[in-house]
Amino acid sequence: MFILGIHDGHNAAACLLEDGRIVAALQEERLTRIKNHDVFPARAVHWLLESRGLTLRDIHAVAMNGHHQPVHRDRARLIQDTRRGGDLHPARALRRLARKTPLLALWRRRRRADREAEARAAGIDPQRLAWIEHHRCHAEAAWWGCPWRDGPVLVLTCDGAGDDLCATVNVANEDGRGGLRRIAQVHESHSPALIYLVVTTLLGMVPNEHEYKLMGMAPYAGEQAAEEVARLFERLLEWDPNQPLAWRRRPGVPNAYYSYDYLKAMLDLRRFDAICGGMQRWVERLLAEWVRRCVAATGLRRVALSGGIFMNVKANQVIAQLPEVDDLFIFPSCGDETNTMGAAWAAYAGMAAPDAPRPEPLGPIYWGAAPAPAEIEAALAAQGAHFRWSRPADLAAHAAAFLERGEVVARYAGRAEFGARALGNRSILANPARPEVVRRINAMIKSRDFWMPFACSLLAERADDYLVNPKRLRAPYMILTFDTTDRWADIAAGTHPSDRTVRPQIMEPAWNPEYHRLLKAFEARTGIGGLLNTSFNLHGYPIVNTPAEALDVMRRSGLNYLILGDLWVEKLSDESRDGGRHAVAP
C-alpha cells in the first residue's frame, strides 16, 4: 500500500509511505531553492513518485496536513501580517469580528477549494484527498516515530497554531493497538509559540524562521535582566483551573497572534539579550510544568513530542532533565514539514488491514535523493574549470588528514537527510577542537550571527566522553542539547560558547556507515570522537540538493575541499585553472 503525505503550507513537504514505512520524503524548498517555501509541494510529489517508479494511479490515498491552512505567504508577507496583527491595528478588530460570523466558514470553504485546485493542478484527484486534523498529524508522527511499542506513551504536541489549536495532550497505545486518545487541548489564541514568533519579529528577525537565533542569544543574557523579563512573560498566561493540563491567557492579554503592539509596549527599553534570555526561561518553565502536570495526570513517564515549539532544543533539554520523565523522544525537524509523516501514518492506520505491518519506530531519516555517478560527472563537466578531482583509495582517511590540520571539508554523499538538520550527507565539517574554525566557516560560507553555535556529530561509542546523559537518552537527530563533561574542549567549536552545551548527532555505525567511517578515521588521527557539523548551504538558502548545487556553493564561497560521492574535489586557484582538471576515473 502506497500513501502520499502532503503539507502544503510553510516549509511545504511530501512523503511516501510503503506498507507503513517511509521510503522517501522531500521538502519543496530543496527543489525550488526558496527557503521554507510556502506552496503546494507539487515538485516534491513528482520527485517522490519518480524516485520509486510510480504514478499517481499506484497511490492508495493522499493524506493532507490540516483541515484548514492559511493562504500562502512569502517572508515579506509574513512579517507584514505579524506587524499588522498588532492589537492596536484596525485590521485586528475586523479580523476578530469576522471570526465570529459566517464569514469564517465561508473563507475556509474557499481556502479548501483553493487547496483542492492546487492538488488537481499537480495531477491529484481532489476526491482522493484525506484531510487529517493538524495536531493529530503531529501526535501520529510522535507516536509512530517513537521507539516504544510495549505500552502506553504520553504524546504532547505544541506549535504556533493549526486547526484552531496550539497544543494537545494525548495517550497513545493504551489499548495495545496503537490508537491515540486526546485528553486535553489548548486554543491557538493562547499560543506561547506565537508569542515567540511575534517577539522574533519585534527584534528585527524573520518569524517562523529565526526563532532559533533568539534561543542562541539567550545564554548570553545577564541573570537579573533575564529574570526580570521572564517575569513579564509569566504575566501573559495562567493554568486553566477548569482544565489543569491546559493554559490560557490572563485577563487583558490579547490573542497571541494579535499581540504585536502589546508585547512591544511590554518590552520597551529592554535589552535585546535580556528579551531573548527572559523569553527562553519563560518557555522552558511553561513547557516543563506542562510535562510535569501531564505525567502526574496520566502516570506515563515515557514522553513523545512533536510540533514546532520543540525545535527549541534548549527547552527539550530542560524537559529531558525532569525527574518525572524516564525517556524522551522528539520527532526530528518537528515543524509542520513532518506532519507529512503524521498525516500519512494516520491514513495508513485507518486503511490498513488488521494483519498489515505496523509502522516501525523511526530510524535514519536519509529519505532524499542520492547522487548518481552520471549526475556527478555531468556537474563536474559543466563546472570543471574551477576544480580538480581524484578518487583516493581511502577517501575517509584522506579527508580526515585535511580535517586534522584545520581545513573545512564539505560532504555531499549518499541520500539526503530530511528536515532542518544536516546529518552528515549534506554537511560542512571541521575539527571541533579548533575554535578558530567557527570564524573561518562564518567568513567563508555561513555568515551566521556571531553568537550562534555550531553542532557536533559524535561517535556513539564516544558520546559518554562528552555528554552528561545519565538517562541514556537517544539523540541521533540534533533535536536535543546536553551539558558537556570536562572533556568539552575536544569539541569546543561545536558547543555553545556561553554555556558549553552541545546539540549532538550521536552516530551509530549502522545508521550511516560511510559517514561513521569518516568519524572513525578522524578519531584515529586525533583521538577526538566527533566532528563539527553544520548544514551545506549558503546563508539564507536551503541545503544543497544536487551535485551541481554543491559545486556552485563551493565555487561561490570560501570552501576549498569537498567529498562528492566517492570523489575528492579541490577548488583551483585562478592561476592553476588552465590544465588543472582531472578526468573522472571510470
Task: Please outline the helices and strands.
Blueprint: E1 2-7, E2 13-18, E3 21-27, H1 29-32, H2 42-51, E4 61-65, H3 75-84, H4 90-98, H5 103-121, E5 129-132, H6 134-145, E6 153-162, E7 165-172, E8 180-187, H7 192-202, H8 211-217, H9 223-233, E9 237-240, E10 243-249, H10 260-266, H11 272-298, E11 302-306, H12 313-320, E12 327-330, H13 339-351, H14 373-383, E13 387-390, H15 395-404, E14 409-412, E15 426-430, H16 436-446, E16 455-459, H17 463-466, E17 504-507, H18 513-526, E18 530-535, H19 547-556, E19 561-564, E20 567-571
Parallel strand pairs: 1-4, 4-5, 6-11, 11-12, 14-19, 16-17
Antiparallel strand pairs: 1-2, 2-3, 6-7, 7-8, 9-10, 13-20, 14-15, 15-18, 16-18, 19-20
Helix pairs in contact: 6-13, 8-11, 9-11, 11-12, 14-19, 15-18
In total, the number of strands is 20
Structural class computed from helices and strand pairing: alpha/beta
Q: What is the correct CATH architecture of the largest domain?
A: Alpha-Beta Complex
Report the top-level CATH class of the largest domain: Alpha Beta
Poorly predicted ranges (pLDDT <50, ≥5 residues)?
575-586
- Terminal-residue CA separation: 39 Å
How much helix, percentage-wise, in residues? 25-40%
Short description:
Helices cover 35% and strands 19% of the residues.
Your description of this structure?
The chain is α/β, with parallel strands linked by helices and 586 residues long. The protein has three domains: 2-73 and 85-136 and 341-351, ATPase, nucleotide binding domain (Nucleotidyltransferase, domain 5, 2-Layer Sandwich), CATH 3.30.420; 146-334, Nucleotidyltransferase, domain 5; 373-576, Alpha-Beta Complex (DHBP synthase), CATH 3.90.870. 35% of the residues lie in helices and 19% in strands. Helix 17 links the parallel strand 16 and strand 17. The relative contact order is 0.12. Residues 575-586 have low confidence and may be disordered.
